[in-house]
Design a protein that fits this description.
The structure is a homotetramer.
Chain A: E1 2-5, H1 11-23, E2 27-32, E3 37-42, H2 47-55, E4 60-64, E5 84-86, E6 89-91, E7 97-101, H3 108-121, E8 125-127, H4 145-158, E9 161-165, H5 172-178, E10 181-184, H6 192-198, E11 205-208, H7 215-227, E12 233-237, H8 255-262, E13 267-269, H9 271-275, H10 278-290, E14 295-299, H11 317-333
Parallel strand pairs in A: 7-8, 7-14, 8-9, 9-10, 10-11, 11-12, 12-13, 13-14
Antiparallel strand pairs in A: 1-3, 1-4, 2-3, 5-6
Chain lengths: 338, 338, 338, 338
């Protein structure tokens, strides 16, 4: 920690701050500048509590954390890239993994046709929502248990592993029974009750970044899951909310190499939500593999114009097959298998 | 709804779109411009499903909703301003209601001293967190049941109504037993499982805007609670996330009159989270009452420099008392009681 | 400055960084933590150059400036609040100053009628654009010299001081001849050629914050004008660009007290651009005076529905008169004259 | 245009709006919905003036433009992709063009060494600033004319075309004499006086997006240059300002295919400013070529740790050579020459 005092802080204020720091078990290094005093804090203690306390102490201008607040998910904790096993595959290994499928499971015919389409084009996992987070209480909320059963059926037919969203800690056991990977949506990235319960769910978790969450907050949410017992977390970028209005979300791909630098966990990109426009998905998929993503999660629907949700950002199976060809060429150019 | 076709959409594409719209039960008005065709859609049907379907239909450039997607919370539904009863008070009535207290309940002494301090200065409700949403799994998570009991004790001593945060649908019954008003934090504004369960909780709900949620999303989340049976919702602005770095959050007060224009529900402002800096809280409180807010929710701690959470944005009881004096003067200038 | 080294920086890297710092004329205080080394830098030198150099030096994680980069505009440089004289008035003095008038000067009748209307209601300066920054090259670009002459005529008739926008360093002398205060628009806040030339213009300058500029950047742009010879700068907040879509811009009023804390310069708010909606202007004006602004700049048009620019955010003279009554009541409640 | 009336607009209000529209020379199509009236506007007229006027007319809820406000730069105006000739090269042609060099020209040795380094690695143009936009008046402002002369010297030695920034309309003739391409920085994207003067400068212009400008505003600024006589505009994305704090700017690459969809102009990406971190530049360069950019502009310095500006985001010539190898592999995978 570094504590920067106000320019005209008094000697009493400075002494009082140093005393407060020592109460938390730290050592103090005070640096007297021309204009102000800066205090370096060394040792082991409760950083957050100390910071918050100091920020409210008279004479303090700013209290800054220097070390990262996450441990288990950090690159310092584990040097090698983690490969997470999901249904016999490795996400984060040599293979670039594409997950694809509809936003919502709507009917047996829809999910079976889509699953077969994406499997034929090279997808390795099937996505599909049974519990849907909808902005409006009047919109379709998902088929729930019936949807989970249809996903299982699609898995039996195609061999594709299943990934589906979990929205409440109440449903963890139920969803875990049917799926290979639990997906946490952007709106639930800081639903801490849910994160804690996923620590014991026995399934890998794909954790999406919140639409205005910082990289630190994303890694702290992953830390919640790991600290509660589940080391198998896949990070997912799905776009952030900005002033840009030609896309539903702004997709900031620099987070992919930055996450790899800070963490050993695999990183997957969702260009469907990351743009909200089907005609931008292929180009952003190509960019994602080019900059080092470990995989993609893509919305594909056998008939987007009749989709109950997210039609505007869904590819047809044919468009998805074309996208896969383009992605494979780039994957080869970055020494990655698809 | 208005559907704008691409400049060179074909006659077949236009006809197909009109047909799709009629399938949803709507009537179609087609307008042929110099450059493109625009289609007006009239009638009653499933707007969201129709919009999403059309956005994925060939030839469509943009599909726009014209009418508001919320009903019960809208000003059209109820012309008069709603006053929500909480512990014998009315939020949204003539009186300007100030809720105050610590971020977290930490100890009996802390909550009792703070409660007495804020009551003496004119606060009408006591806030305090028993379940805490924390970015880090290693930080203090709240006293939970013990905290709820201490809040009840403070109520018995001071008569102040209690408002406290609810983080999971699992805890709704427990928290409802101890509190007068359920607070939904910004991170849970779209925790739809939680919103649904609050529909039946029997307590008024203070719903905070998410840090990157639109005004429409806030009203839709309020609509969830009302549509599930609970009409007693208080809206709360607590700041949004922007590029600004001198504050923890940016407080956009124009939302106060805009919410009043769109909705009959009361609107409260949280300048403590809305700035993150105790030295900005008083000025933003004054601005809030000046622009028409129905109340404030303020963090006050008997000893901010020893607070376990949010010390930097907490007022001391003395600072709070000074703030109340300033707020009262402005309240009088806008014909509001405090 | 504080330099935080990477966790596993080598001794050679640390020594090299210390050497680089000393080359810039600073002294070094090295703090050895459990996890990393942090280096405190003390003395006087070229901070920006040193920071940028260090950020590119191997082993460095982050280089942070502690002291403020501005001097003349800072509160440390001048303790008392500055009052800037404009046409016999003081902006930043005891009186709360309201500037009002149309977005663009359009015709003699329009500017004369509007000027008389706002003067009668209590405005103390007349705003009006002769050179207009327009997003489109095909839109009305202003009456230019003709507009300046009409402004002078309106001044002669009403006695109101004139404030008008300057868009290019080429026009500084011309505009200075006709106006009492030079206005720099948000799009030109970092037009450094213009800022430099305003240092010698002989008129006070009202400097609007850029729509995504930080508080530091605003103060640095003010510093440009002062450092080039003109100490008479009025700061103006006019809203920032965020994801919010019910307003043209988001008006973050906490910047008002924060600017007062950091700088001695007066602060004025523009709620017309700050919201983009005439029906939000009055409430935001009330909030501005409540939180300590020194004045307002308001768009008023004698016939908004026939305005050539910004009709949607312009008040009628009658609406403006009503607003002034409300503003006066709040001004009294914060011990300010209007 | 589409005009959406308020739910309870009166018949008089609706008639008055229709009359106003006809005054502008348009035809009116009125659609009576269950809840409100929507008015379609057809014909040719002054769209902006009409929209602004209507937004201020009683009873109107929202007035929306449907057609794009730009003409010459639009894909509708010119179907084929434009290739802009610069110093014998084509930007926007088959070849993927990399421009590289230091942020600022600092000395003869620096610019010559860097120019030779980037030329050897495959760069096709040399960038370097002689006039520098600096946040602080106390920071290095560029070598100005001396810098331009050094750039010419580097061109003579290496054959690389020169691109350098122009900051004021006063300097257009001077800069045009020394450079092959005029660069407009993000802070000047809406410096309309400068844009107009570039219409007659006789050199192609690389126009960077402002850090909070919309895609429409970028294209309108390009339209300014074209409408004033210069069709040779290259668009450049250099990152936007968001809440993200691990980068200096957020690089939103989906704008690349979206610009190609809307405009025939070439699109170049600046990942140096687009991230602000040298260790992210290579990955973002790879992503840029993968998603269809026509070129890159990269900061390279022969000795970043001693750079006077932007050291933290500059590559060394060796890092740049490695980057070029990676970029070439991806270019091949998208059928592009380097």
């Amino acid at each position: 920690m570094i504590i920067s005092m106000r320019p005209h802080a008094t000697r009493e204020e400075i002494d009082h701050v140093c005393e407060r720091i020592r109460e938390f078990g730290y050592k103090v290094h005070s640096i007297e500048g021309e204009e102000r005093v800066v205090i370096g804090v060394v040792g082991v203690g409760d950083v957050t509590a100390c910071l918050e306390s100091l920020e409210a102490t008279p004479g303090v201008e700013r209290a800054m954390r220097i070390s990262a607040p996450y441990k288990f998910v950090s690159r310092e904790f584990k040097k090698e890239h983690s490969a997470i096993r999901v249904n016999g595959l490795e996400v984060g290994g040599d293979e670039f993994i594409v997950m694809a499928g509809p936003c919502s499971v709507e009917s047996e015919r829809q999910i079976m046709e889509t699953a077969e389409g994406v499997a034929a084009a090279g997808a390795r996992m099937l996505r599909g929502g049974a519990f849907k987070p909808r902005t409006s209480p009047y919109d379709f909320q998902g088929l729930e248990l019936e949807g989970l059963k249809l996903l299982r059926k699609a898995k039996e037919a195609t061999g594709l592993g299943i990934i589906t969203e979990i929205m409440s800690d109440r449903d963890v056991d139920l969803v875990a029974e049917y799926t290979d990977c639990m997906q946490v949506g952007a709106r639930n990235m800081q639903n801490f009750a849910l994160l804690k319960s996923l620590g014991g769910c026995g399934r890998p978790v794909l954790l999406k970044r919140g639409m205005s969450s910082t990289i630190k907050e994303l890694l702290m949410s992953a830390e919640y899951i790991v600290a509660h017992g589940n080391p198998n977390v896949i990070l997912c970028e799905r776009g952030i909310r900005t002033f840009e209005d030609y896309v539903r979300n702004t997709l900031p791909l620099a987070i992919v190499p930055e996450l790899h630098r800070r963490s050993h966990l695999p990183v997957v990109v969702d260009p469907s939500h990351g743009t909200g426009k089907s005609n931008l998905v292929t180009d952003m998929s190509k960019a994602s593999v080019a900059c080092g993503a470990d995989g993609l999660i893509i919305e594909v629907h056998n008939d987007p114009a009749h989709a109950m949700t997210d039609g505007a950002q869904s590819l047809t199976p044919q468009q998805f097959a074309d996208m896969m060809k383009a992605v494979k060429r780039i994957a080869t150019a970055v020494d990655r298998e698809v």
